[in-house]
Amino acid sequence: MKYLCVLACSTFLTQAAIAQSICRLPSPLNADTSQNFCTNPNFPIYGSGTTSGVITNPLPTIATATPGNNLTLQPGSTNAFSLIMGSSTANANLTTAQSIRDTFYFNYITGNLNNAVVAGDCSIDTGHQDCANVPFYAVARHYAIGDSHDLHLMVPTGVQLRAICSGPNAKNLNCTHGNIYGAMLRVPFEIRPGMTIKVRYHTAPGDHSWMPIWLYSGSEVSPGPETQANPYTYPYNYPIQLPQYGAEYEVDLNDNYSRFYNNPPVATGLQLDYGTPDIYGVPWTTPPHTTYMANTNGFTSYPNAGPPFVSLPTNWSMGGYHNLVLSWNAKSSLLYLFADGQLAFTSYLDYSFAPTYTDPADGVTKQQAMHLIIGNQAVPTFDPDNGPIMSQDSLTAGWTLTVQEISAWYGIVTAAAK
Fold first, then answer.
1. I want to staple 243 with a disulfide (CB 3.0 to 4.6 A). Which of 48, 96, 217, 348 is the partner?
2. Residue ranges of domains in the chain, CATH in brackets
3. Is 39's pLDDT higher than 90?
């Protein structure tokens, strides 16, 4: 049974676009309403569809967009896309719940939304590599617009990404591993060396919170109207480049892994957990490594932590929105991460091992790109008091992350041109 999402689609959308807004619900519906999530992936309209190798519905660009905080781009840099979010945010181009669904994927590039969470089953949509031993902490879910469990909410200042415990009611919540449902935004755009990325967001300060902002190998073009076929079944009926072990890359702008256990402890929301994990079997000549960590201007570095990280100035989680900017110098293979305009990390990453492929859309040989993911989860074991996990579905003290802007440029900031 199919149900149209509650919000009416904009009049300029084609019938194909309207078809993509369909949310396939369980039939029959569950008495536990938290289980009435959409069982089909959300396929975005924008950043999708190709004709002769040209994206037919590109993400919006803003020629005057900047990385902010007085960071300047090198001459000749151009805006690749700019997504400004919020029903009352100035100059926003995403202002409705439907526009979120038209723009982003809500799940990882691999997995199956129809599967249950079972230890040893790697097909559940978690993106977790070690599922042979442990079910993942949170599962990427999405609901129809208007559902009380909707995890992707448009608010005046941006897009709120929620994480919730499943269960039939507030008195009977299941907050165990694999039974926490989290929001995700996966951007349908190819990121490669030589580009700059900006994420402007309000951090989630609650205990148990985990809200990674990261790049991962692979890219996907939305197939147009959602079909009855399982979109995870090979051969795929739409352009997709999946990550390949031995040639996979990960860049964590801020993995946001809780550091309550650090000595001294760092409050949730104040950890800047940047890194390029060496966990995918790439046969490096020179492995990825950090070349600089900030330890001034309110930043404190912990180079001997596992893994190393930097604590942010205390005003980072006290309110307002903050900018993470990653600028990737293709010539030097150095990545520069700025937090509110301050250089926080520099690292070396050799991208030459990324595989190449021939794009069937235009016949051009290309190097596999990466894609940006912003997730929100809650982890039962992230508890400084070692107490039972309690649902903290709130903005001020809980698990709600708010994203106001995601932008990218072809080109790098002047400070990264070394």
1. 217
2. 2-416 (2.60.120.200)
3. no
